[in-house]
Design goal:
- By secondary structure, this protein is α/β, with parallel strands linked by helices.
- The chain has 13 helices and 13 strands.
- Strands 1, 2, 3, 4, 5, 6, 9, 10 and 11 form a nine-stranded parallel sheet that branches. Strands 7-8 form a two-stranded parallel ribbon. Strands 12-13 form a two-stranded antiparallel sheet.
- It is globular, with a radius of gyration of 18 Å.
- One of its GO terms (molecular function) is oxidoreductase activity, acting on paired donors, with incorporation or reduction of molecular oxygen.
Length: about 290
């Protein structure tokens, strides 16, 4: 794989990069030594990753993800090459099939999503300027999606998972493909504070069937995934505590077979309900000292 992500990166929602200090925050991530910046729910025009690539010198910028139902493959391939040409080996195109409620709001029918994704990858391969296999990754949770990721892309970028899922994913992918899971973290040692921030994020995903099925397959119960999630579920999905405690969870993913772990800092500076906020720059710097 020509693109080098390093061992640890930052995952963040795209909307926080509308803040006035976005360029400075991206430059700080780069200087701190993080390998990549993953942008959640990235707009398919790729203007945001283009801006952040221009603001940094070394950092890889990745989409985590572009929703394949939201943009024609030919159009996306052209946008990809705009960035790949200007910033060689620094842009990784993360793709995914999203979720039925989101896709249906686009006026699309969420039927046979993996077949749709495979056809989409065919279109990227057959574009006037194809998107190279080793410069794209797929969001994947279950075995069929992970297998497709290993066969048709550089690898997999699983979201809302556990180190046990990372172990299973590595067994499914085999030793070659990239495995880059996302890991939510909270820099707080008080259980009530940490879990409140965690539930504000995790609760949304527990309304999406794809994630619920994945968590049930990992051994969680219907009670665990009800409401905002049980303490057991929250504590397994979200690493909270001191920087050293969070570093331990990241190491568990690496020990289970992850090549790269994208940490998502859950912070009071980010309001998930209104999709607004600022980059949690201090938390990123604090964690860098412990994990890089």
């Amino acid at each position: 794989m020509a693109i080098q992500l390093g061992r640890v990166g930052i995952w963040s929602p795209s909307y926080i990069w509308e803040a006035d200090d976005a360029h400075e925050a991206a430059a700080e991530i780069d200087a701190a030594g993080y390998g990549a910046l993953w942008l959640g729910a990235a707009a398919p025009d790729l203007k945001l990753p283009e801006k952040l690539l221009a603001a940094t010198d070394r950092l890889v910028v990745a989409t985590g993800i572009v929703n394949v139902w939201a943009v024609d493959a030919t159009e996306l391939a052209a946008s990809f090459h705009r960035l790949a040409t200007a910033h060689p080996n620094r842009f990784l195109l993360g793709l995914g099939v999203s979720h039925a409620p989101i896709v249906e709001r686009l006026g699309r029918s969420y039927t046979r999503p993996l077949d749709y994704l495979a056809d989409y990858l065919d279109a990227l391969d057959n574009a006037a300027e194809p998107v190279p296999v080793d410069q794209r990754v797929l969001a994947a949770l279950r075995p069929k999606a992970l297998t497709l990721a290993g066969q048709r892309s550089a690898g997999a970028h699983p979201y809302l998972i556990t180190p046990e899922h990372t172990r299973i994913a590595r067994e499914t992918l085999g030793p070659g493909p990239l495995l880059a899971p996302e890991q939510k973290v909270v820099l707080a040692t008080d259980p009530s504070t940490a879990r409140a921030l965690a539930r504000a994020s995790v609760g949304y995903y527990l309304r999406l069937p794809n994630y619920v099925r994945s968590l049930l397959a990992l051994g969680f119960t219907e009670d665990d995934v009800a409401g905002g999630g049980s303490d057991r579920l929250i504590d397994t999905l979200v690493a909270w505590g001191t920087p050293d405690q969070i570093a331990k969870r990241i190491a568990e993913h690496h020990d289970a077979g992850a090549d790269h772990v994208a940490i998502q800092v859950l912070s009071p500076d980010i309001d998930l309900a209104t999709r607004s906020g600022r980059p949690p720059r201090q938390a990123w710097q604090t964690l860098a000292a412990a994990i890089l």
